[in-house]
Amino acid sequence: MSPFEPADSALLFAAIDHCVLVHDAQTKNILWANPAACTALGFTLDELIPLKAPDMSSGARPYRREIGLAWLQRAVDEGVSTVEWCYRSKDGHDIWSEARAVRVDLARGPVVMVQFRDIAEEKATRRDLSRTEGRLQAFLRNLDEGIVVLDDGGRVLFASESAGNLLGREPAALSAADFAAFLAPDSAAVLQELLATSGRGGQPTDARYRLSVSGAQDTLDRWFAVRCQYIDIQHDLRGLLLLFHDITATVRAEEEHRRDAQYLNHLARYNAMGDMAMAIAHEVSQPISAAHNFVAGVRSRLDRDGSAGPQLNWGLDAATRQLDRAAQILQSLRAYVVRLEQSQQRVDLNDIIADCAYFIDVRARQHAVSLRWERTDDPLPVHCEKVLIGQVVMNLAFNAIEEMSRWRAEERSVEIRTGRHGDFAEVCVVDTGKGLSDLHVDRIFDGAFSSKGNGHGIGLALSHRIITRHGGEIEAADNTRRGATFRLRLPLADTDQQ
Fold it and tell me: Which of 24, 101, 108, 321 has the highest local Cβ count within 10 Å?
């Protein structure tokens, strides 16, 4: 026994939110409409019944009467047919709808029941989503940054096209792959630690990974900077999100900087030892010469008195030979130290400054000193050994930074600028420290001066030697208000030479 009376079924049917039209299966005339359809179309039931397709459909070609009749006939023949249809209300408003026609065999004969609902907002949303998806896909394809999501075991749940490009694999090939297998052993260990420690609500973590290229040389390995964070997107995508980009060039540049720094330190020690050796040779050569004269004087007096015996003569000869040997050693040492290998090349002084900027910036950050760079746009071609000139620039900059580190934080500033000064290329390092007024300015570059309690001043002496060997000049002067300016100048290369 049915729990509903026939009248109850009619009330339930009328309460449906979906619009319902009932057409005769043969003539396709409207037989009935529920209240929702009447409300949406703006017609009463009596007004709807005599209407034809052109009276209640859009006038656009896809919604012509013959197309609508064919759609209803498909429902009669096949039992069901669904289309997107544009109805038109009594006031001329278009109603975009998804319409489903179903054949229903009633006692009176077959009819076609059409159910439709307004999908205008859905269509607009789908258009927006499609447009947004297209843009996102375009962005993801052209990103320099790869995106992957890993499960707790480190397997890939999602990979963007850019991730595939960076890893040299198709995104589909990354799916379910063990991400650690793409990494070098040391980087794989870092990843495993992140997987073990990353959790919900944790802060993003930065790391560096090295990609292990099978069969390739170390020089072809690639480095990635990675930002990691745990994500949970509506329980649909949950895991460790990795955003990574290629920093191979940066890592290699850092390695070159480290090698250059080691080389510069080596050169600095070598040249410092040379300066000290020159000083020692100069000082020792005088007492050797004096001793040689004393031996010659003693021999002359003994010969005059006739008191020199064989053993005494042998001792004097041996002493003379040893003094000659010591003089020869000092002469060889001096000749070796003075000799400078000719490794000069044509280079723009601005490029040398750019190479040094990294190290200077690091030192400035360590001492919380702000830097101001003013580099001329004019080319500054010079012939020099660029590593040595770079050493001089860094020495001057480091001295200025160390001086300013003693001042209050808001006063810590160093300016480095380049420019032309006549036929010279010039670099100026300007600080606002205590200046040079109470110092022996004329001895700053001779190796005897140092304002540091534990220093020996060899840095400025070495700088002076390097610049003068290149045919340039280096000087220091007080600023008008406060502080000091150190200038180095190198002869400009002939611009006609290539």
Answer: 101
Q: Are residues 330 and 372 in the same domain?
A: no
Q: 28-33: which pairs have CB atoms within 8 A and are 24 or more residues apart? A: 28/69, 28/72, 28/73, 28/112, 31/111
Helix and strand numbers, DSSP H then E, in the chain: 14, 17
More confident residue, 270 or 81: 81
Whether 130 is covered by a domain: the verdict is no
Q: Is residue 126 part of a domain?
A: no
Judge if 183 and 269 occupy the same domain: no
Q: How far apart are CA 457 and CA 448, in angstroms?
A: 6
Of the candidates 389, 413, 418, the one whose C-alpha atom is nearest the C-alpha of residue 401 is 413
Is 0.70 topped by the overall pTM?
Answer: no
| 489, 411 contact by CB (below 8 A) | no
How many domains does the structure of the chain reveal? Answer: 4
What is the structure's pLDDT at 454?
41
Please report, for residues 269, 349, 397, 467, the alpha-carbon distance to residue 472 in angstroms, rounded to integers and kept in the order given: 22, 13, 18, 5
> Can you give the CATH number for the domain in which 321 is found?
1.10.287
Q: Does a structural domain hold residue 449?
A: yes
Last residue of a domain, one of 54, 85, 118: 118
Which residue, of 338, 370, 389, is where some domain finishes? 338
Query: Taking the C-alpha atoms of 474, 479, 483 and 486 in order, what is their torsion angle to the nearest 10 degrees?
Result: -10
In this prediction, residue 364 carries a pLDDT of: 92
Query: Per the domain annotation, does 134 fall within a domain?
Result: no
Q: How far is Cα 150 from Cα 230, in angstroms, rounded to an integer? A: 9
CB atoms within 10 A of CB 189: 12
In the prediction, which pLDDT does 187 show? 84
Max mean pLDDT range (294-298, 350-354, 414-418)? 414-418
* 349 in the same domain as 465: yes
Structure tokens at 136: 């996102």
Per residue in 319-328, pLDDT tens? 777 777 677 6
For residue 43, give its domain range. Answer: 6-118
C-beta of residue 313 within 8 angstroms of C-beta of residue 261: no
Tokens of 302: 């003994």
Task: Give the CATH number for residue 239.
Answer: 3.30.450.20
